[in-house]
Write a structure and sequence with these properties.
Keywords: Signal
Largest sheet: 6 strands, parallel
Order of helices and strands: HHEHEHEHEHEHEHEEEEHEE
CATH architecture: Alpha-Beta Barrel
Distance between the termini: 46 Å
Protein name: Polysaccharide deacetylase family protein
Radius of gyration: 19 Å
Number of domains: 1
Number of strands: 12
Biased composition (Low complexity): 38-57
Bound molecules: zinc ion
Helix content: 25-40%
Signal peptide: 1-28
Region (Disordered): 32-57
Oligomer: single chain
Number of helices: 9
CATH topology: TIM Barrel
CATH class: Alpha Beta
């Protein structure tokens, strides 16, 4: 299943990957000793680890040196299948995915979930940049378990886990936008494993529907049935976010926020689509909770690489954390971009 079609060549995308890697590595601003403890196993929410209090607070000079800007943009990557021999433009090989994690790591990016972005729950060490890794369509290569119940190291989740073991300040987390048919990940236990290991399980409609073609009842059935199924499959789970298939919104956008299916209400905090730009900061006036842009990845597309290159070329555009999840710190000349709802937490410098 593809979210949409844009034809690009594999060769140019490969060149883009290499270019992005070189640019970002060259711009890597590895600074300090960050220590992001991960959410302990057993938690069914992907909330950020409460490590901020242990970190020193940067002074104004340090903020400027680090380029702290919590009104800057945050790239949200959209992945599809990981396959050894990519054939479709949105496919990516496991090796290329591992390479992309390294590129992100070297450039100072650290993953947060889609729900954490939407809620502005961003808890990273000072100087680090959030990135959101999302996976659509719940294909088996994204997360699968071995017979002994451990995660397959060749799956996307397995690659993330291995990367965290090698880079303990890179928390293995991602958001999986799951369709309920066909059976996601070929094994329902996978959903529980993901929830228990700090990943976000989110909705992608029951049958990968084009919501623009459905009436109000149809839209609510596609979303409500998916949410109800997931919350039943994973005890304790609350589905907080949705990615609309094909990037298409329903005519009645209110149904993204809340609706009812078979007498059971659903309520979502945020909705993700597809675009060619990084997401605005959740504290920015430009941020729209129900239309958060995501960037295509894959060997046939270069939206993600382009966005990373733009942010590397002009780091003042990029979200750079102050190390304190409560304060919202940014250069004073950006103050007009702040959503006034967050004024009481603002710290211009
Ligand atoms: Zn999809």
């Amino acid at each position: 299943m593809r979210d949409h079609d844009r034809v690009r060549t594999k060769a140019s995308a490969l060149a883009a990957l290499l270019t992005a890697g070189l640019v970002l590595t060259a711009c890597a601003d590895d600074a300090d000793s960050d220590s992001d403890a991960r959410t302990p196993a057993g938690s069914t929410t992907a909330s950020a680890a409460p490590t901020a209090s242990a970190r020193p607070t940067p002074d104004a000079a340090q903020l400027a040196t680090l380029g702290v800007n919590e009104l800057g943009a945050i790239p949200v990557f959209m992945y599809h299948q990981l396959v050894e021999k990519p054939r479709r433009i949105y496919d990516m090989s496991p090796a290329a995915f591992r390479e992309q994690l390294q590129t992100l790591y070297d450039a100072g990016y650290r993953p947060i979930t889609a729900a954490a972005l939407a809620a502005g729950e961003i808890d990273l060490p000072a100087g680090r940049h959030p990135v959101v890794l999302t996976f659509d369509d719940s294909t088996w290569d994204q997360a699968r378990l071995l017979p002994d119940g451990t995660i397959d190291p060749k799956s996307a989740a397995g690659i993330l886990e291995a990367f965290e073991r090698e880079h303990p300040d890179f928390r293995a987390t991602a958001t999986f936008f799951v369709n309920s048919t066909p059976e996601p990940f070929t094994d329902r236990r996978v959903l529980t494993w993901l929830a228990e290991n700090g990943y976000e399980i989110a909705a992608h409609t029951w049958s990968h529907a084009d919501l623009g073609k459905l009436d109000d009842a149809g839209v609510q059935a596609e979303i409500g049935r998916d949410v109800a199924w997931l919350e039943e499959a994973v005890p304790g789970l609350t589905v907080r976010t949705l990615a609309v298939p094909f990037g298409v919104h329903p005519r009645n956008r209110e149904l993204l926020r809340a609706g009812t299916f078979e007498g059971v209400p659903y309520r979502l905090e945020a909705v993700f689509g597809v675009s060619e730009i990084a997401s605005p900061s959740p504290y920015s006036l430009r941020f729209d909770l129900f239309d958060i842009p995501r960037l295509d990845t894959g060997l046939g597309v270069r939206d993600a690489q382009d966005a990373l290159e733009r942010l590397a070329a002009d780091p003042t555009l990029r979200y750079t954390s102050d190390g304190d999840p409560e304060r919202i710190t940014f250069p004073a000349d950006r103050a007009d971009r702040l959503n006034p709802d967050f004024a009481d937490r603002a710290q211009p410098y």
